[in-house]
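Newbie here. two chains, one complex. Structure please?
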Amino acid sequence: MPQTTPVIALHGGAGTILKSNMTPELEAAYHAALRTCLEAGLAVLRNGGTSLDAVTASVVELEDNPLFNAGRGAVYTTDATHEMDAAIMNGATRDCGAISGICGPRHPILAARAVMEKTEHVFLAGDGARRFCETADLEMQDAEWFGTEQRLKALKAEMERRRSGLADDGDPARKHGTVGAVALDRFGHLAAATSTGGMTAKTPGRVGDSPVIGAGTWADDATAAISATGHGEYFIRQVVGHEIDARMRWAGQDLGTASGSVVSELGVMGGSGGLICVDAKGNIALPFNSPGMYRAWCGKDGVVHTAIYRD
Amino acid sequence: MPQTTPVIALHGGAGTILKSNMTPELEAAYHAALRTCLEAGLAVLRNGGTSLDAVTASVVELEDNPLFNAGRGAVYTTDATHEMDAAIMNGATRDCGAISGICGPRHPILAARAVMEKTEHVFLAGDGARRFCETADLEMQDAEWFGTEQRLKALKAEMERRRSGLADDGDPARKHGTVGAVALDRFGHLAAATSTGGMTAKTPGRVGDSPVIGAGTWADDATAAISATGHGEYFIRQVVGHEIDARMRWAGQDLGTASGSVVSELGVMGGSGGLICVDAKGNIALPFNSPGMYRAWCGKDGVVHTAIYRD
């Protein structure tokens, strides 16, 4: 069996805090969190585990950290509820699982994985999805467990802004945050996982790109594993993940060219955000058109990197 | 403005009744229904209307006809409820709207169109989607209105089969039915619409390919308008609509080659079904790998055709 050097990358959302609002302490906390979450997946890979288990491990850590908009720390809908979405895809088989509109499982990514592994379906949403979670042997938490002071403040500020008719302050942190991971394991297999609380003050029932296979989440050993973060409606209309796949497969583009051009075109349309991707050779690309994207990666050189803004 | 000859095609699902169970009376009823539904959209086009209005008009007719699994005549979930999905896409702008898991609007396709036209979102599911429908000025019906004796019988037979552990009888009519329409208007614009009750005895909350933009529904003036019908999980994993688009755009394939090869590859994977598509030159392709697909079309020659089996 060929031994590939394992590679992993993750994002904590393209909706970074405006640089003007960032403090050195908070910035350090983000870098430390990104490193910890990356190392969770990296440890799986270095112990000979699969890319599927590695992206799961990293997203589980990201979901538990209230700094990121997924799992604990998920944003609120206009009803002040949480509705979480997640998806996972195995590049070796194109098996996938997605779930939308749930609040219950501590780890929505494990709910998505249960859809993939325990049902004949690939996508469950709403009430039925919540009922499935109760039978899927997942750790459950009360709605309060997911909430944080900071997210509630963001909801109130956004509702107040809408009531008063004030212009958007352009803070991307309120608009979109998502977490995700992509990995290549030593067996040459790719996997991708994405999890999110959605947009602050979203309409209940809104499905973003994260659980839409081909849009926010995609993996195929023949091309790449991709996890996106951004203004989901644009990412759905561009079928972002599958579009990168298609440019690699049908136009012979490399990972950097395909992913970079797709993210640029999103920007031209008004779709802000970014994505992380890795191909079967272990190349990594982390393009974004927003002011920043929380991200961490460990490529073929084996060195862990973390970054927030463009530099 | 260039005047293109308008073209339209529709399907009433690839889950046709087994030829052995078909009677001459029922077959005649299907052909008549397919013609009526096609003519609804064709009239819009011939009166100078848009492809978006034409596919809406045809799908509205298909939804009202209990012969087809969408709107009235939708199949039942394991809970003996209806959960309907629909999506619509405008090839001129890539605007789109999708809805999943609803029971209320007489015409789910109008609910999908309302998501596109009245919200900043593209996809709503579950409770939130149902609540949106109540505010969207749509004609609503009680759950009983959608039910038919025949669909209830199909649910009971399937539940009985599962209880008794009998093998599947291979009747595709129980597995998947969907309706959809694609059109090219005189302005050269494409549109696609899809609506479905899903699979008989599906898990509540299951989302199939119909409302997944890029999978069961796709339209882009640069390539084609596509509406799929079949075993949705496979169609999601292959991102069927967008894959045909990608082969046309990036590999220079024509509509027939791209759609035919995608449907063949689905068959190899075990994904039964088919799709209807039209390109910006007015070419139509109606490939399927199942025993039949209810379909009707009117191409550049202006003649209405209807068909069920491979004949």
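Moderator note: Residues 85 and 294 of chain A are 19 Å apart (CA to CA). The mean pLDDT of chain A is 95. Thread marked as resolved.
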